[in-house]
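[Q] Does anyone have a clean structure-token version of this?
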Amino acid sequence: MDNSQPGSDEDIGFLGVQELGARYRDGSLSPVDVVEQALARLEDVEPHLNAVAHVMKMAAMRDAEQLASELRSGRDLGPLHGVPVAIKDIIEVRDAPTGFGSRVRKPAIANADAPLVRRLREAGAIILCKTNLLEYAYGIAHPDIGQTNNPHDTGRTSGGSSGGSAVVVAAGIVPLAVGTDTGGSIRIPASYCGIVGLKPTYGLVPTEGVFPLSWTLDHAGPLSRSVADTVIMLECLSGKPFSLSPASLADVRIGVLAYHADSRELTPTVAQNLRHSIEILKALGATIKAIDIPELSAANSQLRKIIRPEASLIHAELHAENREGYAPRTRAQVEAGFELSAVEYLQAQQFRATLRQSIEDRFAEVDVLLSPSVPFPAPIEDPEFTEDGEEGEMLSSGFANMTGQPSISIPCGMDGHLPLGLQLTGAFGADGKLLQAALAVEAALNAYRKPSI
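[A] Here you go.
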């Protein structure tokens, strides 16, 4: 499959935001070139990936021509000017259908952009497409839509629920995409697909215009191929600056979460890669210490007691209207939430406050907390929503949704041809400090690899 621009020997599909910006401004590329290449690349690989719900071809080309003209005339909107992006198909994009990865209702045309989409447009970004997801970001891939496949191995899943957003970035279609994360749904696909995925601090990125799964656990955030590009997109989505210094591990204090690092659910390769990554970070100046937080063992079981009733209340009208429109596993999860008692829900919320404080207290000792992003590389199919006694792919990710703390997955190595991810989590509101540490860890590990597709 050809990654290059038609008529050129040059691969532009994997250029980052800063590289695109430099090329736009020296005249060697234009937004029109890049959008044309992205559409051609998408047409080439999409039959193998099933990553996209809706392509905004005409609108994207119109916007590219307009933004190219503005650059030529001296109007520069900043680093995202003319950069194509993708949006998860649970987020409203003006004049585009939102399908939610479901058949409960027909896709509805949005009358207005979600605030985060509006911020991207105002910064000059070009909305190229909307991406596939697990049904309503909750269940499984609806059988009418199918699984989104991993660009490193199309016989395996990209993960969920933001799998389509991860794939279009990993496959060199766009440099940036937006996903949502309620228990790991940005970070897990980022790990499987070998890219960077950030769940920001709760509330930092607006979620109005995003169909909810859980009011108190939902986050929206960026997926990209580098920490630097993640920072650029987060600045736009949040409306706040995040100025980073040159990458350095000197004086960075990293706490390794023992419950995750020592879990028997880690495959031998993930465990070995984790040890090796820690050795590299320590050799380059980071201070490493083990951190034991007993409450982590209950974090995911308590998360399920929050997400299930909240999701079921959100879906009550849809379930009553067309329960047969759901995939069977999604419907089963919605129905299970109706059975959870109010006492159990409130106890989970009480636990949540205790967990948050226990973890926040540890940031007096360390700057970031480190875990394997997922205990295994991309499986063949999306795993079941695990029950008590098994953590599964949410082993490391769910706690940060409970606490609202920022958490990022970055590439850390390969298991054969499959990427592995390393998760870093920061204190609540300390997204800049987390990103600074992630920039240094990314440079130290230098583990990003292009996919085979």
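[Q] Thanks! Anything notable?
[A] The chain has a mean pLDDT of 96.
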